[in-house]
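Lecture notes, unit on protein representations.

Consider one protein chain, 390 amino acids long.
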Amino acid sequence: MAWGRMRGLALLAALAPLAACAAITSGPVGTSSNALLAGAHRGPSIGSLQISPEDAGSALASFVESCPRLLQRQDSSGLTRQGDWLSACNAAVSWQSGDALEFFGTYFETAIIGDGEAFATGYYEPEIAGSRTRQPGFDVPVYAVPPDLQRGWTQDIPPDERTGQPPLGRWDENGKFVRYFERAQIEDGALAGRGLEIAWAADPVEFFFLQIQGSGRLLAPDGSVMRIGYAGQNGREYVSIGSVMRERGLFGEGPGQYEASMQGIMRYLRENPEEGAELMRLNKSWVFFRELEGDGPLGALEVPVRRESSLAVDPNFVPLGAPVFLSLDRQAANGLWIAQDTGGAIKGANRFDTFWGAGGDAREVAGTMSGRGEALLLLPKGTLERIGAR
């Protein structure tokens, strides 16, 4: 998400992607804490899978980009060690893309994690109207991380409950450490006049969804493009406005009801501006941005995510950088992907978020993506025998 995105604070760390769709609907979440405990079982041969040469080639390119980070990360899934990936990464750099399917068959074996029943949504890189400077029609501030955003213990948390990482907050004018400003306060000007604006957006609804995605492109009136990405978050509660709309009975096909998709939610917000503004403020979370350089938004691995190749996962169940094969009831999402991102709504075994790039078609596919089926995790050969998988 992720990229938000909400990613886990690299979107939010990726506070990643929370993908918009991922925030609207949720799939099954396992009770095991990682893949090793959920159980890894030997899957079919890679040669038996329906992977096109083009699909394998794009996956290989993304795998190559992931390898430098993959070889440095500790795998929280419990399945692999850094050295397990070395042979595949060394070979991938010089492997010819035309024989990419042979590469994956040579260096990988498939594993079913838990029951292997997959649920996948979609996310994308929004393109919205924006400007580096404030001008008529561009009044929505895009803020950098405020210098007073810090971690500490607030007085409402008893000393005996102060374990782990302290929450985000700020020191107020009375010298007390308090929770940081929430969305409503920021929209009302809590950060105005402090020189934190790196850009200005034209549409508060479009910017709201860009924050959920965690990164995007600002298209200026002069035709220039500014890419922005997740830099931090205010530490306040994330609320899925799609879930709230469902609770209020706003989804359906009758009069006054809306499609249960990102497009349906946006239509409600525009047709009901006052109620929509109140609804968005229920999500107290606010994402801060930085300008990005390069040819793509960065995922949790800090490498660019690629259209129809990059996948957001729960790193406790899928090693970041690993290939994943999806076979779903949504044909568009079937094939080979590379786990390069995380997301606040992407939790548990076999829960995935597929990346669809930028532009109108990407927005349409991601906004309606909801697929169920089966998932196979590709692991370096020998991994399953080492961990004693059946």
